Amino acid sequence: MPVNYYLRPNKLGKDGKTYMAKIEGHRLKIDNQSEKSGIYFINDRHEKMKVEVIGMNTPSQLLFLIPASLPNGTYTLEIRTVIKNAERSSQLSESLVVKSG
């Protein structure tokens, strides 16, 4: 599952910034009926945080809100879905670094 990704600031209220992320690729659509499907941030201790807000969920694009409660650290982004009753997952090849500004 090759992907391209973009991060852009999105102001939400007076409390500061949150960030939207956009992933483009192929076969990205997440099966909302499966508990195992989703977008996950995985830290270096293999702890996972699932993305709760997905604005666009198509085979070629995912647009989602990066969790505001995501702690500082280095993460791997993983996409999990079910295609034809088979679980599929893919990870972004680059690590993402979260740090408060």
Tell me what the structure shows.
By secondary structure, this protein is mostly beta strands. It has one domain: Coagulation Factor XIII, Chain A, domain 1. The protein contains no helices and 9 strands. A hairpin with a 5-residue loop joins strand 1 (3-11) and strand 2. Mean pLDDT is 79; it is low at 1-6 and 8-15.
Question: Secondary-structure map with pairings?
Answer:
Blueprint: E1 3-11, E2 17-25, E3 38-43, E4 48-50, E5 54-57, E6 61-65, E7 73-83, E8 86-91, E9 96-98
Antiparallel strand pairs: 1-2, 2-6, 3-4, 3-7, 5-6, 7-8, 7-9
Can you name the CATH architecture?
A: Distorted Sandwich
Major β-sheet annotation: 5 strands, antiparallel
Helix content: under 10%
Uncertain spans: 1-6, 8-15
Separation, N- and C-terminal Cα atoms: 32 Å
Shape: globular
> In total, how many domains does the architecture comprise?
1
Proportion of β residues? over 45%
CATH class identity: Mainly Beta
State the secondary-structure class: mainly beta
- Rounded to the nearest angstrom, the radius of gyration is 13 Å
The number of distinct helices, counting runs of at least 4 residues, comes to: 0
Average pLDDT reading: 79
CATH third-level topology = Coagulation Factor XIII, Chain A, domain 1
* Number of DSSP E strands: 9
User: Order of helices and strands, N to C?
Assistant: EEEEEEEEE
